[in-house]
Amino acid sequence: MTNSTASVPAKPGLHRRLYNWVLHWADTPYALPALFVLSFAESSFFPIPPDILLLPLCLGQPTKALRYAFWCSVASVLGGIAGYWMGYGLWNVGLDQICYQYVPGFTEEKFMHVGELYEEWSYWIVFTAGFTIIPYKLFTISAGVFGISFIPFVIASLAGRSARFFLVAWLLRRYGQPIREFIEKRLGWMMILFCALLLGGFVLVKYVL
Fold first, then answer.
1. CA-to-CA distance for 142 and 88, rounded, in angstroms?
2. Cα 41 from chain centroid?
3. Which residues are within 8 A (CB) of 90 and not within 5 positions of it... i.e. 6 or more apart?
């Protein structure tokens, strides 16, 4: 007698279900509003990066790729600003425990480490978080908690987020489907390498030259 439960597929985890839910908006008339909301939310609490939706939108309509990147960047920076003021005004009234328990990648240890990074690298670390796969939300909320100057924070966020999303949109517009798999698997690490080289240059200037 066969086991009737053997053929029942395992239920996907929460992260995969969120991923699929985000991706399904690409085939709806509400794709651009969904991209805007997702980009905004990801900057402070949502775990799925907006690139997941940006990729199929740019592939489906290459002529609108830069438009999608623009709105993705604007929404993400606005979300970062919201995260900044959340950290500034709500951290000591319960937001800290909410972040530690419910925001993916947000732990007390990482939070304290971010404070050390701000002291050492200032706004370059905001740019790096905005440009790479490092959780940007960890830095937006922390910037408010640590009282980082607001205007330079916004400028660094705008530079990092725009560079990331416009690069993805340009690559997809230029090369189309063949570049998609490469972007999904390797671009995040290439961005980290780029930022490591950039920061390494500043270290060289500071301590060697």
1. 8
2. 10
3. none
Contact yes or no for 77/161 (Cβ under 8 A)? yes
* CB hemisphere CA count around 167 (13 angstroms): 15
Whole-angstrom distance, CA of residue 93 vs CA of residue 23: 35
Q: For 149-192, what is the HEC assignment?
A: CHHHHHHHHHHHHHHHHHHHHHHHHHHCHHHHHHHHHHHHHHHH
Contact between 159 and 130 under an 8 Å Cβ cutoff? The reply is yes
| Residues contacting residue 135 through CB under 8 Å, at least 6 positions apart | 104, 105, 106, 129
Secondary structure element (H or E) that encloses residue 200, with its range: helix 188-207
Read off the amino acid at residue 162. S
The pLDDT tens digits for 116-161 are 888 787 788 899 888 887 778 888 988 998 888 999 999 999 999 9
pLDDT 10s digits, 60-98:
888 889 999 999 999 999 999 999 999 999 888 888 888
Dist CA 145 CA 52 (whole Å): 29
